[in-house]
């Protein structure tokens, strides 16, 4: 599939230093994009990924920012454009994922998720849209979670942030049409989390209907497919082995109270 020439060949990838963000940044570089590589604390990994992008013959700039601080978020698109030219692709990949529950969530844990997971993607999309040159087209891809189609009461601040980002994805698809398309990717099990052992991850992946989750490479392939499908907007691709289809019996809410 061919990516339309109307999309400027510079991409901003948040959380692009490692894991899924790295895979998407490298795939974009392989497809002819120069990369603005955002990171928060992973400076060494960002430098390594940037070196791989340069080895592919593409330009790259690394940009450090705390996405929970709006003043730092606001600097990203201007810095990317100063180094690489107009941003045609924005990948909102970075997110905070920490456990809190309805009975112990605090204002701090709420803000720690909502600011980087929801507010930052909006601020970045707004800035990209305002800066996109006349006659050009853009694409925003938000990394969601397959759970937005099968909500859980756990990880309450994270879950709310991703469900809201899914709503924002659809809202912006309407607001920014016809020049900018906005879509999402909802991964299921892709890589072990910092809290998981390899055995636990394998058990989780094997529990979904297809008995396998996704991979960084498949997520990157989905990104490129979205870029190459000019009529696709307001959609989410769930790469989860059917996890969002699974059914579980309703539990008495009091069973969750210790």
Automatic annotation (TrEMBL):
Annotated GO MF terms: oxidoreductase activity
Q: Where is this region: Disordered?
A: 187-214
Is-annotated flag, keyword Oxidoreductase?
yes
What spans are recorded as compositionally biased (Polar residues)? 194-207
Q: What is a single Pfam family found in this protein's UniProt entry? A: adh_short
UniProt KW keywords: Oxidoreductase
- InterPro entries listed in its UniProt record: NAD(P)-bd_dom_sf, Sc_DH/Rdtase_CS, SDR_fam
Q: Give the family, as the similarity comment puts it.
A: Belongs to the short-chain dehydrogenases/reductases (SDR) family.
Please name the NCBIfam families in this protein's record. PRK09134.1 (NF006597)
Protein's UniProt name: Short chain dehydrogenase
Q: Organism source for this protein?
A: Falsiroseomonas bella
């Amino acid at each position: 599939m061919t990516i339309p020439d109307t999309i400027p060949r510079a991409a901003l990838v948040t959380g692009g230093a490692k894991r899924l963000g790295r895979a998407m940044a490298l795939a974009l570089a392989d497809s002819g994009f120069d990369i603005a590589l955002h990171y928060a604390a992973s400076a060494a990994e960002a430098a390594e990924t940037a070196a791989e992008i340069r080895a592919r013959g593409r330009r790259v700039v690394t940009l450090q920012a705390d996405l929970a601080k709006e003043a730092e978020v606001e600097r990203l698109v201007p810095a990317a454009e100063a180094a690489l030219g107009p941003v045609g692709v924005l990948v909102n990949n970075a997110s905070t994922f920490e456990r809190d529950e309805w009975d112990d969530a605090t204002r701090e844990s709420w803000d720690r998720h909502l600011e980087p997971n929801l507010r930052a993607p909006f601020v970045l999309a707004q800035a990209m849209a305002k800066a996109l040159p006349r006659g050009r087209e853009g694409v925003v891809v938000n990394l969601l979670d397959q759970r937005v189609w099968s909500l859980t009461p756990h990880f309450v601040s994270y879950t709310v942030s991703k469900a809201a980002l899914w709503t924002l994805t659809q809202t912006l698809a309407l607001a920014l049409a016809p020049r900018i398309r906005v879509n999402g990717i909802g991964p299921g099990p892709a890589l072990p989390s910092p809290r998981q052992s390899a055995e636990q991850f394998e058990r989780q992946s094997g529990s979904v209907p297809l008995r396998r989750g996704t991979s960084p490479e498949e997520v990157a392939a989905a990104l490129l497919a979205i870029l190459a499908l000019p009529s696709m907007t307001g959609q989410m691709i769930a790469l989860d082995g059917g996890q969002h289809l699974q059914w579980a019996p309703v539990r008495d809410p009091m069973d969750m109270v210790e």
